[in-house]
Amino acid sequence: MIARVIPLILPLIGLGAGVGAGFALRPDAPAAASSETAAETAPDTGAELTGAPPEKAADPENPPEYAKMNNQFVVPVLEGGRVVSMVILSLSIEIPAGGAEGVYAREPKLRDSFLQVLFDHANAGGFRGSFTDGSNMVLLRRALLESARAVLGDAARDVLITDIVRQDS
Fold first, then answer.
1. Which of 22, 33, 36, 127 could crosslink 131 through cysteines, CB 3.0-4.6 Å?
2. What distance in Å separates the CA atoms of residue 90 and residue 165, rounded to the nearest whole number?
């Protein structure tokens, strides 16, 4: 009899333990704080690296929107006139809420501009060796943001590299 009851009780005990752990480990509810206190304790968003004003990057009343570029970017890495590897990237652009239509309307111009930046980065050796090194990525993001702002103006708050992979041949 007990051999038939144990397989029924064990999943219930596991479920109860999981629910209990979920309640015990859930994050605390956000405390109501004044805007001055929130601004003082706000984490660093990295806005100084990208040139975006901090008040735009951390505005809780107007959260940003992210426009994902429809296709990936494929960049060849050349050495001695031969393709030695391919870098594939996916990019998104941080924009004010409701600005996605403007980004998609200018997507061909953005893609051209981004590809030029990516080819320049590849030709300068940015995708060789430790290409995901922090300083390399900061330089690439900054160049992509400047390129996006040349096309979109101040609507481009940041450029996010959502995926990056290098395939060596």
1. 127
2. 9
Question: Does the model's pTM come out above 0.90?
Answer: no
Residue 66: Cβ within 10 Å count = 14
Domain range spanning residue 34? 2-41
With tokens 């103006």, the residue in question is 153
Single-letter amino acid, residue 83:
V
Alpha-carbon span 16 to 22, nearest angstrom: 10
Same domain for 133 and 52? yes
Are residue 138 and residue 59 in the same domain, yes or no?
A: yes
**Cα distance between residue 83 and residue 126, in whole Å:** 15
Q: Are residues 54 and 80 in the same domain?
A: yes
My answer on whether 62 and 78 are in the same domain is yes
Give the SS3 label for residue 48. Answer: helix
Q: Would you state the pLDDT for residue 36? A: 45
